[in-house]
Design goal:
The complex is a heterodimer of chains A (612) and B (360). Chain A has 612 residues and is α+β, with helices and mostly antiparallel strands. Chain A has 24 helices and 21 strands. In chain A, α3 runs antiparallel to α4, α15 packs across α18 and α17 packs across α20. In chain B, β1 and β2 form a beta hairpin. Classes of the chains: A alpha+beta (612), B mainly alpha (360).
Chain lengths: 612, 360
């Protein structure tokens, strides 16, 4: 039988309980309201980020060239430090870590951070660590990644280095804030999001950790760079620079240069060196102000392979070479590559626009009778000036007058190569429009008359306002040999960008290779530098370049090499800033790199012959 | 038995008050959850959209339950009970989630939800008790059935629900004309059993640590939840621009939702919500007095006690008077199973109203 009275009794019990609960809630929300607000104010959630281990970097042979080591770091939870226990914590730190000075210890205890770093524990015995953790609950050990560049200076400009992010970098790179480090240059910057990993997070409520997220390591990067080639490239370039210093009386000390080896088939970069360089590990442990300024003054942080802007000099003549054969524009009166002009060492023009009237070749006595092949072989300026004159006479002041500039741009000059490195510079291919712009934006740099015939004469031999980077030159030669202007890349998994496609016939490529071969052969401008190879020079090619600089600056020394004529695999570009003649300095540097690429015996870089 | 016309809103004569109450509680829950989310995108992972979907399905469940007449229900109870026990046994063969076998994961069949069978088995237990108690005499085997049901929930392990059902069962026996002496003896036997299980370490470590934490007075979530309730003040922070920083309370949208509600709507809000429940209890109590059918009396009082004890356990937990239990606040907490089971309870009560011709 259902008992109504007992139900009533149950309900009454419920009401008494409910009244009690409501009373408690009422008290909480009225009398305790004020004190609660104060407690909550101290309870703000705080986050402490844990740097994620960066992805490691490997060279073409799978050799590790940048690594991430996890090392235990001792932190102290400042929210657990009170007036009572701070003295004992100070003592513990003093006792266990005698290396820390009293001032450093005082600074730790003045910290406003939640977690304050004390010291790296990697050299401390396990028992000591364990003892610290179990007996003192304000201590915390967190494994933090340390970046180590195994080859030190060798990859300074390609890998780059890390630093503390600035405001812009916080905005660009989402993990920069949590990691408190960001790639400042090189691949570390270009692939920042790929390498960085996602930082871990400790969430604090008051002094307690209420939530934690483990950091997620970044992904590894695999490069096309070959460490041994890189090393030979660096040694050879350094020898070349030393040689130039020894051989020339330059006002400035010669110390800058760059050298790039590019794989012809894939467009991958096999080595890339810029000098002077620096040790990126110094940024990990903290670089001194003095040292930084010193390096900065030497422009050591510039990667001259992609940021050095130099007039290319005679190495630029291949553009006119390609134009001549494609458009059938030869010196006036000639209609094929085998017809010859008579080079008497200078050329006079009847320019009516106020340009220079007489042009002197670098070889004052002249090159004699030269065809297109001889013009490349001996780097004869007169032949190319004749081509420029022909262009000027036929197209001057018409839409077609910029045909040389258009051909340059097809090969990637004054455009980005889209290499997978940051801060790439593009250089300049001057034309009438640019000079008109400069008249307004940079008055004084160009003459009042604007673009003149003489400027085209300068451009065709790679002089004047034109500037290029070594990588652009390497990529332009590569484009001529393959027909495809691909972005040169370091990461073997990088997506290749096709910058442009050009029409080059098999016939043209074999002509070009054969003519490049004449340069390193007997009678060519680079023969002296290559003669040590004996008859092996029959299968090697290149082009020398010596670009004049304004003012007191010594000439820029260029050499573009091809490792083989029968089976061309690599383009080798070497530039020594103020290195003088290309055939004297850069050619032997490239020769040594080619010796390595073809697995010949290495011989020292020795002074070649002064030519253009 | 009157033949009733079937309408869209259930059979003729749905009690508007019960329906309104159900919807009001749901809307209060939406507003409370709204304050704790950052975006209102309609996604399966967004707690507000989940809860709204759950509430709407709950409304359908409410009407579906209403179609079942009390007579048919009465005849089906034993089948329900056997089904319920089987489903609980089935749980033993699932892979544990968070260390306990409490849910069926419906992800493999494409539904992004977990079903908690004990939510439904507690209603079936009340139905079962109502049936055996309303018969002139009940067999010992029925009592054994209740014990097996409790044991299956206990070994999930789900200490909170076990305690809840133990209290509900005790009250329901208490409501019948059972001698007070045997009631007390029965309770003592239960507690003895409980401590034997404790000794045999049937109870997981984490349950022990909850209890130890509680008695040492430093359970973090309960301290935080008291702070959260307190920060609501008289009027709450929902309609004012409070300068007080948010308080971190673990599982604030499920078990601890009343602390979130109190923070948002203050003491007056809490009073309002609890008054609605008191009103609901008075309404239902009137039928208990009115109806002549013994089964309906047991059923309604059992369901009221089930709801009431859940609310009390939930409130006492978040106020820190008893250890953590994991009992949700009916219709306020986030979670499908809890909403559907409460919808069934409301549906059953509604059916009793209909059959007694009480419409408003």
């Amino acid at each position: 039988m259902f008992n109504q009275i007992r139900l009533k009794f149950t309900f009454i019990t419920f009401f008494i309980l409910l009244a009690f609960i409501l009373f408690d809630i009422f008290q909480l929300q009225t009398t305790e309201f004020q004190s609660t607000s104060e407690i909550i104010d101290q309870q703000n959630l705080d986050n402490f980020y844990i740097t994620a281990p960066r992805g490691e970097i490997f060279d073409a042979n799978g050799e590790k060239i940048a690594e991430t080591k996890l090392e235990p770091h001792l932190f102290i939870n400042m929210r657990k430090i009170t007036n009572e226990n701070s003295a004992s914590y100070t003592q513990i730190i003093q006792y266990n870590f005698p290396d820390l000075t009293t001032r450093e210890i005082n600074e730790i205890f003045e910290s406003k951070e939640i977690l304050q770093f004390v010291t790296n524990l990697s050299s401390i015995e396990y028992e000591v660590r364990n003892n610290l953790l179990t007996n003192f609950d304000a201590f915390l050990i967190i494994d933090l990644p340390i970046r180590n560049y195994i080859k030190n200076e060798l990859f300074a400009h390609t890998i780059g280095y890390l630093g503390i992010p600035n405001q812009d970098e916080f905005n660009i790179f989402q993990n920069a804030l949590g990691n408190n480090q960001v790639g400042k240059n090189g691949l570390e910057r270009y692939y920042e999001d790929y390498l960085s990993g996602i930082p871990g997070e400790l969430t604090f409520l008051g002094s307690e950790i209420i939530d934690s997220k483990q950091p997620i390591p970044g992904r590894d990067l695999f490069l096309s760079i070959d460490s041994s080639t890189q090393l030979v490239t660096k040694e050879s370039l350094q020898q070349g620079i030393d040689l130039a210093n020894k051989s020339f009386e330059s006002i400035n000390e010669i110390k800058r240069g760059a050298s790039v080896v590019l794989d012809i088939e894939t467009g991958n970069i096999i080595s890339m060196v810029s000098l002077p360089d620096f040790n990126p590990n110094k940024f990990v442990s903290g670089i001194s102000d003095f040292e930084y300024k010193q390096l900065d003054r030497d422009q050591a942080f510039n990667n001259f392979a992609i940021q050095g802007l130099y007039p290319p000099g005679s190495v630029f003549k291949v553009v006119a070479y390609w134009l001549a054969l494609s458009e059938n524009i030869f010196p006036e009166g000639l209609n094929n590559k085998d017809s010859k002009v008579d080079c008497e060492g200078s050329l006079s023009f009847g320019f009516d626009d106020g340009s220079q009237q007489v042009y002197n070749d670098w070889k004052l006595e002249g090159h004699g009778k030269v065809d297109l092949t001889d013009a490349i072989k001996q780097s004869c300026n007169v032949y190319f000036w004749d081509i420029a004159l022909n262009i000027w006479r036929n197209f001057g002041n018409t839409e077609g007058e910029s045909i040389l500039q258009e051909y340059s741009k097809e090969l990637g000059f004054s455009e980005k190569t889209n290499v997978d490195l940051p801060f790439e510079k593009v250089g300049i291919i001057p034309d009438r429009n640019l000079f008109e712009e400069w008249k307004i934006s940079r008055p004084g740099i160009v003459r009042e008359e604007g673009w003149l015939g003489g400027d085209l004469m300068n451009l065709i031999i790679g002089q004047g306002a034109i500037t290029t980077t070594p990588l652009q030159v390497a990529n332009a030669y590569r484009t001529l040999l393959t027909g495809e202007n691909l972005s040169p890349t370091l990461n073997i998994n990088a997506e290749k960008i096709t910058n442009n496609k050009i029409n080059v016939s098999e016939e043209f490529i074999s002509f070009l290779l054969k003519d490049l071969n004449t340069v390193t052969n007997k009678g060519g401008t680079a023969y002296v530098s290559f003669s040590i190879l004996g008859n092996k020079v029959n299968d090697i090619g290149g082009k020398t370049g010596t670009a004049q600089n304004a003012g007191d600056k010594n000439n820029t020394s260029w050499f573009v090499g091809v490792d083989s004529i029968s089976n061309p695999k690599y383009i080798i570009v070497t530039v020594v800033d103020e290195g003088g003649s290309g055939s004297a300095v850069s050619a032997p540097v490239s020769r040594r790199i080619i010796q390595h690429l073809r697995e010949y015996e290495l011989t020292p870089v020795e002074f070649g012959e002064i030519t253009e | 038995m009157i033949n009733r016309k079937i309408t869209i809103l259930g059979p003729e004569g749905t009690n508007l008050y019960i329906l309104l109450q159900f919807m009001l509680f749901s809307v209060i829950s939406w507003f409370t959850l709204f304050s704790s989310i950052e975006s209102i995108e309609f996604e399966t992972t967004n707690i507000l959209s989940r809860q709204i979907v759950f509430s709407l399905i709950g409304l359908i469940v409410f009407f579906l339950t209403t179609y079942l007449s009390i007579e048919n229900l009465y005849n089906l109870i034993y089948s329900f009970f056997i089904l319920s026990v089987s489903v609980l046994i089935g749980l033993l063969f699932t892979t544990p989630i968070l260390g306990v076998r409490r849910w069926y994961d419906l992800e493999p069949i494409g539904l992004p939800i977990f079903i908690q069978p004990s939510e439904f088995s507690k209603i079936i237990l009340v139905l079962f008790l109502a049936k055996i108690l309303s018969q002139k005499s009940y067999k010992l085997i029925a009592v054994l059935g209740v014990l097996i049901n409790l044991l299956l929930i206990f070994i999930q392990p789900d200490l909170g629900t076990t305690m809840l059902l133990l209290i509900v069962t005790s009250f329901m026996f208490f409501m019948s004309d059972i001698k007070l002496r045997s009631a007390v003896l029965g309770l003592l036997a239960f507690f003895l059993l409980f401590f034997i299980f404790l000794e045999m370490s049937f109870i997981g470590d984490y349950q022990i640590s909850r209890i130890i934490d509680f008695f040492s007075g430093d359970d973090f979530s309960q301290k935080q939840s008291r702070l959260s309730i307190s920060s609501g003040g008289l009027f709450g922070t929902y309609f004012t621009n409070s300068q007080i920083t948010e308080v971190f309370v673990p599982v604030q949208t499920t078990d601890f939702i009343f602390s979130l509600y109190s923070r948002n709507f203050g003491f007056l809000g809490g009073l309002f919500l609890l008054s609605l429940w008191i009103l609901f209890f008075f309404r239902v109590n009137r039928i208990i007095k009115l109806t002549q059918i013994e089964f309906e009396k047991y059923l309604l009082s059992g369901l009221l006690i089930l709801l009431g004890v859940q609310i009390f356990i939930n409130l006492l937990t978040i106020l820190g008077f008893i250890p953590l239990t994991g009992i949700p606040f009916p219709l306020l907490s986030l979670g499908g199973s809890s909403i559907f089971s409460t919808a069934i309870i409301f549906g059953l009560i509604n059916r009793v109203f209909i059959e007694n011709n009480i419409v408003v």
